[in-house]
Design brief:
Elements lengths: L2 H13 L1 H19 L6 E5 L3 H7 L4 H22 L3 E5 L10 H20 L1 H6 L2 E6 L7 H13 L6 E6 L4 H16 L16 H17 L17 H27 L1 H7 L23 H5 L12 E4 L19 E4 L9 H55 L10
Parallel strand pairs: 1-2, 1-5, 2-4, 3-4, 5-6
Length: about 425
């Protein structure tokens, strides 16, 4: 039999109900075994190879993209079943706008179709509690496509367990630029002054009336006057004493009235003299946050994926070994980047499982190395502490031996 006939027989056998049941059971068993170990929390996919798949299989390009969406639906189910909480896919790049208008319109229509298909497969997202988020520049999206975007986001907004990030249209450089711009705007706002003096709760007329009442009380309880004597003139006559007493009272009344008048006219004198009140004083210079406070965490808080964990695993299909300006900031030193020589429509569980197993093996290896290093550090610390104790014991024994004096026997002659 030719290879073509063998492939038809294989497809017929695999499509039979017993074979499908056996494959489903095997799939569930493998995913269950996968959950027993560490599982990446955030996985990103660069879905590349749809057009080449269509060209290779001599089908329409749109059909190749439809097959790519079916592969995405299967992979999403595997990810959410195995315990992955965040999945990010690269759907449309800003660089694609540099192509011809015909090709850009075709890509936009394909994106619209994909989003509609995602909405139609809403039972898959609702089953695992996944919601859709669109990452990118909304102002570049056509109005009809933007309507499909908003509809897909609104239909899954109630889900909170898992997240599906659709980058459309997106480039990592634009995301980083936007984060830097927002950070500059935040650090260009002055720091609010929390130490400002609060205005006095008492009005000027109330202060004036209080001073007047205090002066009247002092006048009522004014102490008895004392009569002063001068050495030259001696004692004064009663008439002169009465005159001096009246004159002193008049002088005192004049002083009180002058004080009251000066107090009452104090605010007017200050205003007329050109002096400024505290409200009109020169404001202190504004203070701004120090640029030294900007850290990588500051920029991360302004990224599209600020609420998501860092990417643990990034996979690109079609055998192309480049990131194409995708998630450059989110990839860190522990991110495992895998380039697979398989087209995206052919990417399935059997292509995905070896990648997950390798990731688990690396994580366990790093964990064992860290654990061994911690054990060695503890052993070094215990060895150092034991050596210190032994050295102290040796020093104390040496000191005790040097200080001990043997008894001297004295013989009588």
């Amino acid at each position: 039999m030719t290879s073509r006939h063998m492939s038809h027989v294989r497809r017929w056998l695999l499509s039979s109900p017993p074979a499908e049941w056996a494959l489903n059971q095997l799939r569930e068993m493998l995913i269950g075994a996968l959950r027993q170990g560490p599982v990446p929390k955030h996985v990103a996919f660069v879905m590349d190879g749809n057009r080449r798949y269509a060209k290779t299989h001599r089908i329409e390009t749109v059909e190749g993209h439809n097959l790519g969406f079916e592969a995405l639906a299967k992979i999403l189910e595997v990810c959410y079943k195995s315990g992955v909480t965040h999945v990010t896919i690269y759907a449309f790049s800003i660089e694609n706008f540099k192509r011809t208008k015909y090709e850009v319109d075709a890509l936009m229509d394909m994106a619209k179709i994909k989003l509609k298909q995602l909405v139609q497969h809403g039972d898959l997202l609702d089953r695992y509690g996944a919601r859709i988020r669109i990452l990118g520049q909304r102002e570049l999206i056509k109005p009809d496509v933007l309507e499909a975007v908003d509809k897909a986001v609104a239909m899954t907004a109630h889900n909170t367990k898992c997240v599906l990030n659709v980058c459309f249209p997106y480039t990592s450089r634009e995301e980083i630029t936007s984060a830097v711009r927002e950070t500059v705007q935040d650090f260009s706002r002055p720091i609010p002054d929390t130490n400002k003096e609060r205005p006095s709760p008492f009005r000027q007329d109330r202060i004036t009336n209080t001073i007047r009442s205090q002066q009247q009380q002092q006048q009522q309880h004014y102490p008895n006057p004392t009569y002063l004597q001068t050495p030259e003139k001696g004692l004064q006559s009663p008439s002169s004493s009465t005159t001096s007493l009246s004159s002193s009272f008049s002088e005192h009344d004049h002083d009180v009235s002058s004080v009251s008048t000066s107090t009452t006219l104090q605010h007017d004198d200050i205003t007329s003299s050109g002096l400024t009140t505290p409200d009109k004083q020169k404001q202190p210079p504004l203070q701004y946050p120090s640029p030294e406070l900007i850290t990588p965490e500051t920029l991360t808080s302004h990224m599209y994926t600020a609420s998501d964990p860092p990417i643990d695993l990034l996979i690109r299909t079609s055998g192309v070994s480049r990131l194409s300006d995708f998630m450059l900031w989110q990839c860190h030193q522990d991110t495992q980047i895998v380039f697979l020589d398989v087209l995206w429509p052919d990417f399935d569980l059997w292509s995905f499982l070896p990648v997950l197993w390798e990731w688990q093996w690396r994580v366990r290896k790093v964990g064992d190395a860290d654990q061994n290093e911690e054990t060695m550090d503890e052993r070094r610390k215990s060895t150092k502490s034991k050596s210190k104790v032994s050295n102290r014991g040796a020093k104390s024994s040496f000191v005790s031996e040097s200080l001990s004096v043997s008894p001297v026997k004295v013989h009588a002659s």
